[in-house]
Each structure stands twice: as C-alpha cells, then as structure tokens.
TrEMBL record:
It comes from the Eukaryota. The chain crosses the membrane at residues 12-32. This is Nucleotide-diphospho-sugar transferase domain-containing protein. InterPro entries: Glyco_trans_34, Nucleotide-diphossugar_trans. The lineage of its organism: Eukaryota, Fungi, Dikarya, Ascomycota, Pezizomycotina. It comes from Lentithecium fluviatile CBS 122367.
Amino acid sequence: MMLPPTSARSPLFALAVTAGAVLIFIFGLLAWQSPAQVSFPHASVHDEVVTDSSRTPAAHDVFRLLFAPMKVEPANATFTFYDENIENLTTLRLPARPRYTKNMGKDVLVLDLETRPLESTKQYKEGQYDWTKLNHVSGGVFSHYTYAQVHGYDYKFIRAHEFEDRHATWIKPSALAQHIKNYKFIVFLDADATFRFMHLPIEWMLNYWKIEPMHSITMALDPWSVEEADYNSDRFNRTYANTGFMVVQNNAKIMEILKAWHECPDDTRYPGCSYWKEPKFHEQSAFGEHIRYDYEKYVKELPCAEANGFPGVTVSDCQGRFVRHYWFDKANIKKDFRDNVMNALTLPIQRMFAENAGGIIHEQVENVLP
C-alpha cells in the first residue's frame, strides 16, 4: 500500500480517517458483545473529529478491547486450545496454589533489543507500508508490542550499540541489567521468537512453569539428539539453554548473575570465556558453559517443547507450546501474529452469526419466486 505524498493535509490525516473507520468497526463489534464496557463517539469517518487524539481511542485500548473476550486470567485453573498435531482440544492445568493471581501490569517489561533499525520504519517514513512485505524482524517486534498492550505490560524497544570485539548478541546481559531494577520481571524475546497465544498472560505461564522467587532467569533448553549430540551441548555434554526467550526476575541474585555473564569474556572469573566472543552461540554458549554452573538454583530451565522451536520440529518435541522460536522459516513469525489478530477480530463476527444478533439470519422456508 502506498501512502499519499506529503501535502498540506499530510498522510497522517488519511491514515487517521482509515484508522478511524477500522476502530469504529472494531468498537461496534465489541460494543455489541459487551455494551456496558464500550462506547465510542457517533461520528462519521469523514469528520475531522477522528484526528482529535483526545477523542480517538489509544492503540493499547483497542488491543485490550479486541482481545478482552479471549483473555485468560492469571490464576485460571485450566487453559484449553487446539494443538496442531491432534484433532481434539488440549487442556492444561495449573498447580493447586498458583503464585501469581493478578495481572502485574507495568511491573512487567516486554523487551526487544536490537542493534539494527527496523527496515519497515524507513519505508514508512518514505510513505510506504505493506504488511505483506514486512520482514520477520518488524513482524516479531510488532507482535511483542501488541502482546504487551493486550495485557497492560510495559514495553521497550532498545537500540543498543554493537561491541567492537564481540558478537552483537552480547548486548543482552548489560541491557537486562540496566532495566531490571525498575521491574519485577523482564520478558525478553529475540525478533524471531513470539508468543503463540496472544491472549495468554505471562503470569499464567509463570504459574504453569512453577517460577519461584529464587528463579533469577528462566530459559528453555535447545533441541538435542543422539545423531548431533555435540551441536547444542556444552563441554560436559549438557544441553544449552536458549537465550532467545528469557524471563528475568528482579531478585537478590539477578545483578550478580548478569554482571558475571557480561564480564565472562574478560577471562577474569572464567578463564577461556573469551573464546565465545564470536563463535556459536556467543553469549548463549558462555552462559551454558560457565554461568549456570555457579548459579544452578537460580536458573530455571524449561523443556524445549515449552518455549522453543516451532511446529514440525520433532527433535526434543521443540514445537513451541507457549513460545515459538523460529530458528528457520522466520517468516512464520508474521503468520502467527496474523492468526492471533484474526482470531480475536473474527470472534465477535462469529458470535453475531451464532447468536443471530439483530436478526441477521433469515429463514427462507420455500425456495420460490415472489
């Protein structure tokens, strides 16, 4: 889609009118299913009132309202979903006494960390935006941002400068250290990782994984197979944990762990760690080879199947039950995002037909000409 060139009216006006029409459509559907909670101004999409930010719903309000009918409560006893590999519904149950019973809101930070700018931003500033041409980085970032807005979490996209002497992924420990002091949890995802269920809050997953106050960092293990036993294993033949998805908790040990991790390549506390400045898997290998052995009780390692991999991966059953990490086929990030949004957007439409709201379904008893 090409946006009109800058003029006296500016592209923002056209965008606002289009956005207004979409928002009114969405709000209309949502107002039907929960009229006590939703209202919007009775204005034509052609009226310039839609450009008034004081009267136009904020993006986070739209996201929350859109997903409200689907959202799962943090301590909901069960979560039911369709699994791609089986025809029947799958139901998962929380432990008897879940720890996290309320939404933590702004105490949770969803964090994107990049050294590169979003390609889509440059294109947008040039008057172009086309969802179909969006690369996986923008698709992943947009999905993370949307997830944060749906659940009321804080969100940051950090542009970090690269190191001169090591791989760009080494920016993770210091970035986490700079921000964890302001939050109870940081949820970090690589651009090629995404939440499978946009409507499932991180609190529910923390309950399901039995994350306790002592757990400073939670990661999922990588896949492991006998055929390639050395590929994802450390020097003790223990499988690496993947840093593409991390839940970092603000507790007494976290800064010590992050400091040890960040300084690992200096070869002071961990001789030989400088080897991992560049070779695979950089900071992840350093964490697996050194850091986790000093902080075993503070590191929670999830099965690969829970928060790593994607559908079709048979090794270690790494099919991304809750969090998907597309090491390959990265374009599927956009597909997951699209499917989540379309599921939320079409649910009110389905409900209208299922409940015959407003008498939209008419019975034709006889198939005859009038």
